[in-house]
Design goal:
348 residues; six-stranded mixed β-sheet; globular; binds adenosine-5'-triphosphate; binds magnesium ion; binds fe (iii) ion; acyltransferase; Gcp-like_dom
């Protein structure tokens, strides 16, 4: 059977179509389409909720239509609709929910409201098949930095660590802003870092002391440290080499994320690691995770960069897992929950 997934939790309008895999197979991606309002937020240095909602409204139907064209299927082929019901911006979620409810009602198919964060993890199953149980997932995105024990993508996901302040993606965005590099910060820092020296500046590794929480993260000290470095360089008339700042910052982020993930996998006796979310598109994080997982004898799975950042395919993928597990469909009263906890995979 075929599922349509709709994503609108932040500034990306996404629609994806997947085919449910057979037993032991992951869902198959048929095609997806994305529209982004990130350009409209760039001059504000972050997402403006009202602008995001309006952009979703304007691009939703066209994005869905284009996803169908790319996938080579028709609305009459769709057996279920999945939609992000949280976490995310309330007004942005509302647009996707309204669209998904309308499609499900018009086509007379079940609707599944699913968790955006679990969706990021589910994206990986489109490329690498079903997750072994248990899997350790590092979810690194614009709003979250969480270590998860995933026993079952369709229902059993447990948080074992999180950031105590900024998310990793938020740190990228704030550092880019203070360096005058625009929004979103991740891709531009990633690119500039290629010409920099990751050892040029010794930025702090948050929460890595012997008495710090083993699986929690902190990135606000790192962001402040970058700001201090830039300020003091300017004050003393030293030129700031932006590529070196980017490479050194990126190294600090990747170092802490991978060290804690590998440690958690060892502690919990979990042998498969998935890295997901927008920051998983980062070149240095992918390389260091590969290096350290290999050294620790862990299997690493990371979706291709285009499936790491927000998209509709990941929502369709999670919907496929939820539907295949025999979940009860959501009602027409399904509502968005901006603070939906990561363990709530789908909502009635
Ligand atoms: P959440 O998923 O927590 O609700 P979100 O949906 O806004 O937040 P994503 O779309 O998953 O977040 O990820 C966006 C974040 O990923 C931004 O902070 C962006 O800077 C970061 N990002 C994107 N590409 C890269 C990259 N190549 N390197 C580092 N960070 C990146
Ligand atoms: Mg985005
Ligand atoms: Fe996201």
């Amino acid at each position: 059977s075929i599922l349509l997934g709709i994503e609108s939790s932040c500034d990306e309008t996404g629609a994806g179509l997947v085919r449910l895999g057979g037993p032991g197979e992951g869902p198959e991606l048929l095609g997806h389409e994305l529209a982004s309002s990130s350009d409209q937020h760039a001059r504000f240095g972050g997402v403006v909720p009202e602008i995001a909602s309006r952009a979703h409204l304007e691009s939703m139907t066209g994005t869905v239509r284009s996803a169908f064209a790319k996938a080579g299927v028709r609305p009459a082929d769709v057996d279920a609709v999945a939609v992000t019901c949280g976490p995310g911006l309330a007004g942005a979620l509302l647009v996707g929910l309204a669209a998904a409810k309308a499609y499900a009602a018009a086509w007379d198919v079940p609707l599944f409201g699913v968790n955006h964060l679990a969706g990021h993890v589910a994206a990986d199953t489109l490329e690498h098949g079903p997750l072994p149980s248990p899997t350790l997932a590092l979810l690194v995105s614009g709003g979250h930095t969480i270590l998860l024990r995933v026993d079952d993508l369709a229902g059993s996901i447990t948080q074992i660590g999180t950031t105590v302040d900024d998310a990793a993606g938020e740190a990228y965005d704030k550092v880019a802003r203070l360096l005058g590099l625009g929004y979103p910060g991740g891709p531009v820092i990633d690119a500039l870092a290629a010409d920099g020296d990751p050892a040029a500046i010794a930025f702090p590794r948050g929460l890595t002391g012997p008495r710090d929480a083993r699986y929690d993260f902190s990135f606000s000290g790192l962001k402040t440290s970058v700001a201090r470095y830039v300020e003091s360089s300017e004050r003393s008339g030293r030129a700031v080499r932006i590529p070196d700042v980017c490479a050194s910052f990126q190294e600090a982020v990747a170092d802490v994320l991978t060290a804690k993930t590998v440690r958690a996998a060892a502690d919990l006796g979990i042998s498969t690691v998935v890295v997901a979310g927008g920051v998983a598109a980062n070149g240095r994080l992918r390389a260091l995770a590969a290096e350290r997982c290999a050294a620790a004898g862990l299997t690493l799975r990371v979706p291709r960069p285009g499936l790491c950042t927000d998209n509709g395919a990941m929502i369709a993928a999670l919907g496929a897992h939820v539907a295949a597990a025999g979940a009860v469909p959501s009602s027409a009263l399904l509502s968005g929950d901006p603070a939906l906890p990561v363990g709530v995979v789908h909502q009635l």
